Amino acid sequence: MTSTFSSLRINSDRMLDSFTQASSFGATSEGGVNRPSFSEAHLQARKWFREQIESAGFEFRTDGAGNHSAVIASETKQSPTLIIGSHLDSVPNGGKYDGGLGVVAAFEVLKILQENRIKLKVNVEAMDFTDEEGTLVGLLGSAAIAGHLHQKDLDNPRGGRENLLEGMKCAGLSDESMLSAKRKPETLAGYLELHIEQGKRLEKSKINIGIVSAIVGIASYRLTFIGKANHAGTTTMEDRLDASLGASSFTLKARELVMSEYKNSVVNVGKMEFSPGAFNIVPAQVDLSLEFRSATQDEFDKLDEALISLAKAEAQKFDLELTIEFLGKHSPSPMSDKVQTAFASACDDLGLTHTSLTSGAGHDAQSLADLCPVGMIFIPSINGISHSPKEFTEWEDCVNGANVLLQTVLKLAT
Ligand code: HGY
Ligand code: MN
Ligand code: MN
Q1: Residues 6 or more apart from 215 whose CB is under 8 A from it?
Q2: Does ligand 1 have an atom closer than 6 angstroms to the CB of 362?
Q3: Which phi and psi angles does 405 have, rounded to 5°?
């Protein structure tokens, strides 16, 4: 069934202009962006988005979590809202497509709805979610909207409480405002997100669009292996309580464990901090940032247990103490069948090939998955690179993705 709007397409030049402007905030010399949550560059990008929204004549909305959005209201009062969007914050020294593209594409879709005076049966909101990347908390803005954010998540966030307080202060936010951003499920009609794949499957298979079936669960811990500082020259190897041995042995064994027994999971030690941290001192303490991800709840739970037991075993082996700090968890989430079907139908209408993919990356969609029908589409990442200034996607693929988003919104909102 082709809708009366099936010939509508986004304005590629206008979206490219918008994307180029957005990518200028925190632009790095290697072609990426450095826009961690509430950094100066991120605050500038947020300010730019608000100005774009207001100058385009949309209603500007923000909430206690600092989410920023443009809204087109349906003529039917009390309608629920279909949210489309992504995030303007980036990882440190990341790529310009991760999140940024999804925000400008969502905004472009709203402009098409506006200039064609489309009658909407639901409100449509183009959103920039706060701190998706977890520089501070992770999926912060979407978790706040979903009501999944609690004071304990703000008390001990993976980016550190001090950094969170500083960031909230810069953005005029607080614990109380964060926890006030919850929306009632009945006010939400759904959530759609366009995102780069951040992997190689679409590029290798030469398929235009990935329709996401499920998003992995993500858990974060800080593990602290504690030994004893001592002289690196005069202390015999046998006498050392060397914290680096527990941390390094854990890291290697965690990789072996996942590769041998948890095929649908990944594990990452993204940071190790040695203290006191000098050439000639046996390390007294190593703080290790652990993150792991699994596609299914069952494997997620089992891996959680296995990694914590492994950490304890490795600490014991080297006579070290171990402290374990839980820093947050987002469950694996299946995407809505209804939304996946709507995406597939839009791809077919546009003559774009598509395939079903799971997402190894976390996304705001997983925060909202138990509140309303959610779905995501991916477009190819060149060499699968992401979270790097080398992240790149052909503009034609960006336009394809934005047109699928537009046509899917038209199917679900009219
Ligand atoms: O880390 C992730 O999976 C996502 O890019 N925030
Ligand atoms: Mn992202
Ligand atoms: Mn990311």
Answers
A1: 332, 333, 335, 358, 359, 361, 362, 363, 365, 366, 369, 376
A2: yes
A3: -60, -45
Residue 113 Cα to ligand 2 midpoint, Å, equals: 25
Query: Which ligand 1 atom sits closest to the C-alpha of 98?
Result: 5
Domains of the chain: 3-216+332-413 (3.40.630.10), 217-330 (3.30.70.360)
Handedness of CA 170, 71, 361, 370 (dihedral sign): positive
pLDDT at 1: 45
**Residue 361 near ligand 1, beta carbon < 6 Å:** yes
| Exposed / middle / buried, residue 93 (Cβ in 10 Å: 0-12, 13-18, 19+) | middle
User: pLDDT tens digits for 324-335?
Assistant: 999 999 999 999
Residue-wise pLDDT tens digits, 266-300:
999 999 999 999 999 999 999 999 999 998 999 99
Q: For residue 3, what pLDDT is reported?
A: 59
For the CA of 99, the nearest atom of ligand 1? 5
- Our answer on whether the CB atom of 332 is closer than 6 Å to any ligand 1 atom is no
Instruction: Kindly tell me the burial class for residue 140, based on how many C-beta atoms sit within 10 Å of its own C-beta (0-12, 13-18, 19 or more).
Output: buried
Atom of ligand 1 nearest to the CA of 138: 6
Alpha carbons 205 and 221: distance in angstroms, whole number: 35
CA-CA distances (angstroms) from residue 43 to 101, 106, 160? 17, 20, 19
Q: What is the pLDDT of residues 102-159, one digit of tens each?
A: 999 999 999 999 999 999 999 999 999 999 999 999 999 999 999 999 999 999 999 9
Q: Is the minimum distance from the CB of 132 to ligand 1 under 6 angstroms?
A: yes
Half-sphere exposure of 246 (CA within 13 A, CB side): 34
Rounded to whole angstroms, how far apart are CA atoms 242 and 82? 54
What's the pTM value of the predicted model, to 2 decimals? 0.90
